[in-house]
Write a structure and sequence with these properties.
disordered N terminus, Rossmann fold, 6-stranded parallel beta sheet, 46% helix, 20 helices, 7-stranded parallel beta sheet, single chain, 2 domains, alpha/beta
Length: 457
């Protein structure tokens, strides 16, 4: 049986298909020896245990958003056969209403990671963000790092670096590099969830006036930081081959050693449902936090362009659900809400809604990293209709149940075709699920992490 996280915040729904039903959809589930999942004391004693300090900009619990999911699973995989300590900043929006102590306790209990310290980010509201942005640009520092400069966190992390006796230090994001730019006593790996300068430049292209100028300057300042980091840190962890190429381009003439560690999905928790397409009440679904700017633009396109065209092609109202945290963005969502479009907000287990949906539609115009939302939908057996940006870093085609389109009208035509054609839908759903099980289960990702650790200690 594939490894499965026992999540206290996401209980498995009672209507999940049985293991026998899942095997009929996916083929026999691969068998993983128990010793591979939880190494025994004798197993650990015969291999070199690496002591790892993981510095991150969030407590990755609950693992509900993309960045939290990736950090949660990577630290959990590392802790299977090594000793992992974490020092983290606290972002309250990531905690989903959980108390900080509860999040720490549950995360540590589920992953085996020791939480050394957590430190809240002291930036409050729009005024606080504006002040941080002003101060950062006055000293030619990117906002990407300025909002993470928290003196107590810096003191704690530097103390661990200096006195902890670690074999490996992983800095989770480029924004934390200035906080921990010290004399490193051991090997360091710098993580990149995205190539941030490239992402800021993409945002700038889509804005006008003073906002565009600010984003262009931010992109340049981040690039200066990326180049400085590449000159001092050799090893960089990225989520896709595309991100590796982008990073190598933006830090020239430096030549970083990039380790490609994709994001994955828990294929034993997110499974394909038993319902046929015609039995599912939701025609289209999109999933993602509305606080992430590429997601906001995607939702606007879905509500204003894709959904009305699908309704026209189906000659009935297309039922569309948007799943994801929306706190603080209600006014923006009200402006784009269309007929038949429902905003669910954050849900504990999105698999329930995905298994009631026919097609996952992601009209993303830009972004970075590996799209966990796409992988999760594929694991639930949903055909995916998206853009080149939505499929970036995945190396998937129509043979994998992923349809890459150009523009909202093409997305609508493909989505409506899948909704109306049960045989085509079933073939794409099966292909999507098979692709994720074969390539993107987290245990497959563990093999890549093990390669990264070779040579440490």
């Amino acid at each position: 049986m594939l490894h499965r996280d026992v999540r206290s915040f996401a209980r498995k729904p009672a209507n999940l298909p049985s293991r026998q039903a899942r095997e009929s959809n996916d083929g026999p589930l691969p068998s993983v020896p128990a010793a591979q999942l939880v190494p025994s004391a004798s197993t650990r004693s015969h291999r070199s245990i690496v002591r790892i300090l993981y510095l991150t900009h969030l407590v990755p619990y609950p693992p509900a958003s993309g960045v939290a999911l990736r950090t949660y699973h990577i630290t959990k995989l590392l802790a299977m056969e090594n000793e992992v300590d974490i020092v983290a900043l606290v972002q309250n929006n990531i905690l989903k209403g959980l108390a900080q102590d509860a999040a720490r306790s549950r995360y540590s209990g589920e992953t085996g990671v020791r939480v050394v310290g957590t430190y809240p980010i002291r930036e409050r509201g729009t005024l606080g963000k504006s002040w941080t942005l002003f101060r950062a640009h006055m000293v030619s520092s990117p906002y990407e790092s300025a909002w993470l400069r928290q003196p107590v966190f810096e003191q704690a992390s530097r103390s661990c670096i200096r006195d902890g006796g670690y074999d490996l230090i992983i800095v989770d994001t480029i924004g934390l590099f200035p906080s921990n730019e010290v004399a490193w006593p051991c090997r360091v790996v710098l993580g990149h969830h995205n190539v941030e300068s490239h992402l800021a430049a993409q945002r700038a292209i889509r804005r006008r006036g003073i906002v565009r100028k600010c984003l262009e300057r931010e992109a340049k300042l981040i690039n200066v930081l990326e180049r400085r980091a590449a000159s001092k840190v050799r090893d960089h962890m990225v989520p896709s081959a595309r991100d590796a190429r982008l990073l190598e381009e933006v830090v020239e003439p430096h030549r970083p050693h990039t380790w490609i560690v994709p994001s994955g999905v828990d294929t034993s928790h997110f499974v394909r449902g038993d319902k046929r397409a015609e039995e599912r009440p939701i025609d289209m679904v999109f999933m993602g936090s509305i606080g992430w700017h590429p997601n906001r633009e995607a939702v606007a396109s879905l509500a204003r362009e894709v959904a009305p065209e699908v309704s026209r092609l189906l000659r009935r109202l297309a039922r569309t659900s948007v799943v994801g945290q929306r706190d603080g963005y209600e006014r923006q969502l009200a402006a784009v809400k269309g007929a038949g479009v429902t905003f669910t907000g954050f849900v504990e287990d999105p698999g329930v809604i995905l298994r009631d949906s026919k097609v996952f539609v992601a009209p993303l115009a830009y972004g970075g990293g590996t799209k966990l939302k796409v992988l999760t939908a594929m694991a639930c057996g949903l055909p995916v209709v998206t853009t080149e940006a939505g499929a970036e870093g995945l190396d998937v085609t129509e043979d994998d149940g992923v349809f890459v389109c150009h523009g909202a009208m093409e997305i609508a035509r493909v989505a409506s075709s899948l909704i109306e054609n049960e045989d085509r839908w079933d073939a794409a759903a099966s292909a999507a699920r098979a692709c994720v099980v074969r390539r993107f289960d987290w245990l497959r990702i563990k093999e890549l992490l093990d390669k990264l650790l070779v040579g440490t200690n």
